[in-house]
Design a protein that fits this description.
Layout lengths: L1 E5 L8 H14 L5 E5 L5 H6 L2 H9 L5 H5 L4 E5 L3 E5 L10 E3 L2 E4 L19 H10 L6 E5 L6 H9 L2 E6 L3 H5 L1 H15 L4 E7 L8 H11 L17 H5 L13 H20 L1
Parallel strand pairs: 1-7, 1-8, 2-6, 2-7, 8-9
Antiparallel strand pairs: 3-4, 5-6
Length: 279
């Protein structure tokens, strides 16, 4: 089983789109059993995979969300009728995934924001324990983690849980600026927690034209960087307004009649598998 986090500290770079579609392609075209975990408090991946009605029903039913993994507090309530009552934390092995089409998912939850969670108290390891105790025994081939666009404890928990990470970027100056900073943050986490996570590289998203000055300048900048020059995916996802418009209703590229998008996704997944084999 391989776990891959998709990370970037800038929003709007197509991180969630790339993560969801890589997961779908691995399942749909490669026949793999894949889970996607939404660790972003903004729960964008969940909004793509669940309709608003489905998500509300999920919450009302008490079904597990990512909050179930991190909320380790034991709730105690007092009643004049029943006295003191304690609600125990759910066991990791009892937190189940939901199948959505070709992939399995643990939906996100905006209530992650209410948790007062800081590094050092141990909860940053909860996601890793959940994966080991609840997901791994069920024969999953890949776990894809969608992370928040901030260097938060949630990103840290994803990195602790992952074998690899991928950085999706747009080929524009603002999207490219933070890549080295992100790498330094990941390296700091690696040293602090003794992680063995490895970077698979940078994948371009929302490319308007492959012959554009902006795209070629972005590639040139990375090619001249000692660290990134050999870590840039040759395949990329072209920019498509139809994909952005249909993201909530139909997030899957493989269900669209767009050859370039499908070919780009296929190339990205093939490169991911090749890079994993090489490491």
């Amino acid at each position: 089983m391989k776990t891959i986090s998709f990370v970037n500290m800038k929003g709007g770079v197509g991180k969630t789109t790339t993560a969801i579609n890589v997961a779908d392609y691995l399942a749909r075209a490669n026949g793999k059993k894949v889970a996607i975990l939404d660790v972003d408090p903004q729960f964008n991946a969940t909004q793509c995979l669940y309709s608003p009605k489905e998500y509300v029903e999920t919450l009302k039913s008490g079904a597990p969300t990512i909050l179930s993994v991190f909320d380790t507090e034991i709730e105690t309530t007092a009643s004049v009728v029943t006295g003191i009552a304690t609600k125990k934390q759910i066991e990791f092995k009892d937190i189940t995934l939901t199948q959505k089409g070709n992939i399995w998912t643990l939906p996100g939850n905006i209530d992650l924001y209410r948790l007062e969670m800081v590094a050092g108290e141990g909860r940053e390891f909860s996601l890793k324990r959940f994966i080991e105790e609840s997901i791994k025994p069920h024969g999953f081939d890949y776990i894809i983690i969608d992370t928040p666009p901030t260097p938060s404890i949630w990103m840290t928990s994803a990195l602790i849980s992952s074998d690899y990470y991928i950085i999706p970027v747009r080929p524009d100056p603002l999207s490219m600026i933070g890549i080295d900073l992100l790498r330094s943050i990941i390296e700091r986490r690696r040293k602090t927690y003794g992680l063995k996570i490895q970077g698979l590289g940078v994948v371009f998203n929302m490319v308007e034209r492959p012959d554009s000055v902006i795209f070629n300048q972005a590639k040139s900048n990375l090619a001249s960087n000692e660290h990134w020059k050999d870590r840039v995916f040759t395949s990329y996802l072209p920019k498509r307004s139809e994909l952005a418009k249909s993201q909530i209703e139909q997030p899957y590229i493989m269900a669209m009649e767009d050859y370039d998008l499908r070919a780009g996704l296929k190339g990205i997944v093939n490169e991911i598998l090749e890079k994993i084999d090489e490491l």
